[in-house]
Amino acid sequence: MSKPILWIVIPCYNEEQVLPITAPMFLQKITSLTEKGMISDKSRVLFVNDGSRDKTWELICSFAKQDAHFIGISQSRNRGHQNAVLAGLMEARANNCDITISIDCDGQDDINAMDEMVQKYLDGAEVVYGVRSRRDTDTFFKRFTAEGFYHLMNALGADIVFNHADYRLISARVLDSFADYKEVNIFLRGMVPLVGFQSEQVLYERHERLAGESHYPLRKMLALAFDGITSLSNKPIRLITGAGIVVSLISFIGVIWAIVQAAMGSVVAGWASTICIVCFVGGVQLVCLGVIGEYIGKIYMETKARPRYIISERTWAPYERKYHG
Ligand code: UDP
Ligand code: MG
Fold first, then answer.
1. Statement: residue 325 has pLDDT above 60
2. Which ipTM value was assigned to this complex?
3. Which of the two residues, 286 and 167, has the higher pLDDT score?
């Protein structure tokens, strides 16, 4: 059997500070895996520039000139981490690679775990999830919110791997099937398990960022979590139905109680409690409407079926005109 061609897919957004440090590490990994005879020497390090505003793309182009293992594509604008990874995976697929490993460019995820990932692929696994063994370098708050998120996702019925982000190996077979998942709202770590096939896990330690700053402040993290939940599970809508039934039952009991009181000659007093209950129910209804609205918004975006990524440049080829219709 010929050796598999590996593409390492690396999303980059405003990463001019960290790329000069991590790019040689990725190249070194490709070289050592090739020397060990585990992968083909046609393997590549693919950087996906996600519409950076700094010198990231210029850096990627200069890497590509220095060494043929480095290649890069650029998105026409910033589309977010998930779309950048997807663009890279689909590019790798279009170029007939046998395996892809997606990883962040900031050195937080241990590059050395790739040896074990590739070995597990050679032993028959089609998906290998990188799982953080410890999160010591994350703040208590990030750890707490992240773990709460994984538990919530699983409770809502989405099958996601605990403490796994987007560091994973995928075989060409899985990638081919994954290409049929056409949704616009993508949450890769929730979608990949849906594809199935034999999967394995590799534990690694998560480090500090080697340079630069995180692009995921609390606001974006919450948005990603909310997106993940609503694009993978319908349970929130079911919960609303459940909450409606519970509130109706309680109010029904209240009515009976008030009638019984009246029949016994005493009047149920208190307009304040009435106002409180009306406001409470009003608030609950607005939240429920918001959740339903979130799903309708998702349906709206899905029906438009807009492109999920637009590649404007490649380091190895000029822009090709697409003809429609
Ligand atoms: N990233 C991206 N597009 C964005 C934001 C981030 O491609 O709009 C990339 C970023 O360059 C990095 C990865 O996604 O390689 C993870 O981002 P970051 O390290 O900022 O997130 P954190 O590790 O703090 O969650
Ligand atoms: Mg990071």
1. no
2. 0.95
3. 167
The confidence score (pLDDT) of residue 217 equals 76
pTM: 0.83
- For residue 193, what is the enclosing H or E element? helix 188-195
Helix runs in 67-158, H state only: 81-94, 113-122, 140-155
| Per-residue pLDDT at 172 | 95
Contact between residue 197 and residue 127 where contact means Cβ atoms under 8 Å apart: yes
Q: Which of 106, 188, 208 has the most ligand 1 atoms within 8 A of CB, as the residue to mutate?
A: 106
Site to probe by mutation for ligand 1, drawn from 9, 10, 12, 13 as the one with most ligand atoms within 8 Å of Cβ, is 13
| pLDDT tens string 287-309 | 888 888 888 988 998 899 899 99
Atom in ligand 1 nearest the alpha carbon of residue 78: 8
- Ligand 2 centre distance from Cα of residue 85 (Å): 14
pLDDT of residue 322: 66
Closest by CA to 9, choosing from 103, 99, 76, 81, is: 103
243 by DSSP, 3-state: which?
helix
Give mean pLDDT, residues 168-178: 95
Nearest CA to ligand 1 atom 24: 214
Cβ–ligand 1 contact at 214 (below 6 Å): yes
First to last CA, the chain: 42
Tell me which residues have their CB within 5 A of the ion that is ligand 2: 104, 106, 108
* C-beta atoms surrounding 83 within 10 Å: 21
The CA distance from 306 to 78, in Å, is 15
